[in-house]
Amino acid sequence: MVAVVGIAFDDQLDVRVAPGLGFDIVAPLPPDATGVTVTGRAWLLTWAIWRQIGAGQTTGWVNSWHLALLGVTNDVTAEVVNAVASIPHVESMLDLGAMVAEFFRGTEGPCTVTVSAEPAGNDIGEVTYDVIGVAADPIKGYRLRVFGQRDTDMGSYSLYAVERTLLCWRGVSGDGLCI
């Protein structure tokens, strides 16, 4: 089973009748879909590998860039705070998430950063970013759930916690590491 990754919270992953953008859409998948089954069939186009998938009653094809196996989730708050030498304070949860995503962004090769879950919450806010293409095979990227505590007097958010889930290319070991 795999998850949909790298799709914006206000968008969808289009499942198509055949591999390629020119084919009809048979169903949409939400940006946070999990439990998607890869059938084993793949098709290489010049710019992407397409995989045949099953999700619920739907079978079709999607660009494999938007599929990943979910690995272990760890609290990496201290790693972020130590890197910036303080607890960050910013104006919005989107800004806080973007700052954390930039910290985990790869420096080699193509890397995409996507807000995959809309900011939510009041006193404790939450936003999810997918960072894909971190150039660290076998790791495809990270799903970052960023939590911020609202300072109502200042109208800003301070970093409260960061959970990082590994997004894996090929497989996940028994202890949740990418293989």
Describe this structure in words.
The chain folds into 2 domains: about 5-65, SH3 type barrels; about 70-170, Double Stranded RNA Binding Domain (2-Layer Sandwich). About 10% of the residues lie in helices and about 55% in strands. The protein has helices at about 75-85, 95-105; strands spanning about 5, 15, 25-30, 35-45, 50-55, 60-65, 65-75, 90, 110-120, 125-135, 140-150, 155-170. The strands form 3 sheets. Strands 1, 7, 8, 9, 10, 11 and 12 form a 7-stranded antiparallel sheet that branches. A 3-stranded antiparallel sheet has the order 4-5-6, with no helix packed on it. It has a two-stranded antiparallel ribbon with strand order 2-3.
Compute the separation of the termini in Å. 15 Å
Q: Please tell me the overall pLDDT.
A: 92
How much of the sequence lies in strands comes to over 45%
Query: What ranges have pLDDT less than 50 throughout 5 or more consecutive residues?
Result: none
Specify the number of helices.
Answer: 2
Features:
SH3 type barrels; 11% helix; 179 residues; 2 helices; Double Stranded RNA Binding Domain; 3-stranded antiparallel β-sheet; mainly beta; 7-stranded antiparallel β-sheet; 53% strand
